[in-house]
Sequence to fold (213 residues):
Amino acid sequence: MRLAPWTVVLSAILNGAVGAQAAPRERISPATQVTLDRLIDSARVAGLPTTPLVDKVAEGTLKGADDERIVRAVRTLVRELGSARAALGPSADAAVLGAAASALHAGVSESDLQHMARAGGDAPRAALASALVTLVDLVAKQVTVASATHAIDDLLNHRANEGQFAALRADVGRDIAAGRSPEQSLVSRTTAQLRALDPASLDVMPRRPPADP
Fold:
């Protein structure tokens, strides 16, 4: 019987054929390999993308994670991909689902995902994927989830494209490296993009979450 593509790749990873810089560790056990094969196969049957799962195994292996931690990470990702599919619907492609799963992992709610998908409207899926990647990147840069979500939602409402989201990531990164606070940079950069996208909205400012009591 011919092995499915993800099984071939996964077997290569588990047998140490990926990454000469992998941390020294024992090979993943045969029992764990069976568990991972089943998880990935069940995701495929459910219509979920399997490449992020194979990548997650590779990441764990390269970092020297133990079997239990790798299985737990893959189970979590399967669940997050399923939640992303439930939030975005069956038309969401693999790139959008992967980015949405990362957003959920970063703390974005399913309802916020749904709202951003609606805000994107008929925009190209690449724009929504880039928006979600940007959201996750901003949270990693210590922007609060609420602030990042509101900014991305505003930009989607104004039909920002893939390149503009990539520019936002880069600009905020440069500002932070120069010593500016992540939140201040996000507000300034988002406002500039909104004005460029809609000259009539010169007074538009990104919505801010209410202050903590």
